[in-house]
Amino acid sequence: MVHFIKNIYLTNRFFISLASVCVFFVLGYFYPVIGAIAEILLLALSVCLVTDALLLFYPGPGVDATRNLPKRLSNGDPNAISINLQHYYPFEVGFTIIDELPFQFQKRDHNFNDSLAPKKQTKISYKLTPTQRGSYTFGALNIYITSPLELIERRYRFDEEQEVPVYPSFIQMRQFELYAISDRLQDVGIKKIRRIGHTMEFDQIREYVRGDDVRSINWKATARAGDLMVNQYRDERSQQVYSVIDTGRVMKMPFDGLQLLDYAINSSLAISNIALTKHDKAGLITFGDKGCNIVPAQKKRAHLQKIQKALYNVDTDFKESDFNRLLTFMHNRISQRSLILLYTNFQTIESMKRKLPVLQQLASKHLLVNIFFINTELDDLLQSTPKSEEEIYIKTVAEKFNYEKKSIVKMLNQRGIQTILSRPQDLSINTINKYLELKARGFI
Q1: How would CATH label the architecture of 1-167?
Q2: Rounded CA gap, 97 and 143, in Å?
């Protein structure tokens, strides 16, 4: 009985019908004939209500539903989720699905309404875009079923407490990997870099094809084969590529729901995958105010799982990162010259100058690429036309910040430090562009 009461809900149609009967009873106080009609309507409503309950609670399975979740969700990407609904009633039913989403999404009205033919099934799909890494817990899947009378609803509950982790953007990583394998990276904005000279690693001798560099012709092989033959070179392999992520307060700034730290993490995963695809070694370093953590660079494909797990737990706080500690750590742990992709953020020239001695020492031992962000919130201000003194002041400050960002790039480049100044949403593409450029020019 308790189970019956907990799963039965009166619909709006029932309350409208009951209100109409009440109106007839009120009128029946003045007109006895209408009062008799009201009694008949009340009896009919009661019979319909009991009939509706019997229809919905007849013996049998009734409804079966499952929520299909992936083993993990990709942070910052739309993730497909589906609900399979099967009912066994011998009549058409209306249904309302209320899916209890994790609290991180802050959505309490996630529902679907439709009807279903007798003994049929349906599949409902939707997408969720998480903006935080961590564990997400889905609540119950609530199904409310109505018969053609639509006076009451019967509730079914399924899949309570489903937990799924949210990892750094592996969807983005796989997307770039597919383009890299098919040599179509330029289709997603990756620039095709013209090679300057040759790399140092010889690959094979092959027949000359129109357009090949004539300096690559192998005259001895040409004399033996009777056709023009050229030497083919390939990119040097087994170079170390380290993604170094600043977890300090400068990476706390949000953009489109994600923190700058999350953009850096997603980019690190993508570039690590591309580096492994190009037969280089990929590694990871995270640092903050107290210490540094490292995943040593390796060449194995399975190594990507270690990097992904390490990135899953990376978080930031409101403290300033210790760059001197980073310098000492890298000096002790990385002996081979490597490509260092340093993800941080400089808001002013003064903040960059405080860290410049450390950056110069890193650049003297490694190929350092300093990656920081354009403040896209200033774009509208820079393009607007001020109409008051306050707006003039605000635009002037915005132009000052924009100028300082460009000045930082110039100062770093003058000291032999490569830079990437990127919009957060373009970070992965710009980082891969720089990696391929440096590789094509034989810098690594």
Answers
A1: Sandwich (2.60)
A2: 5
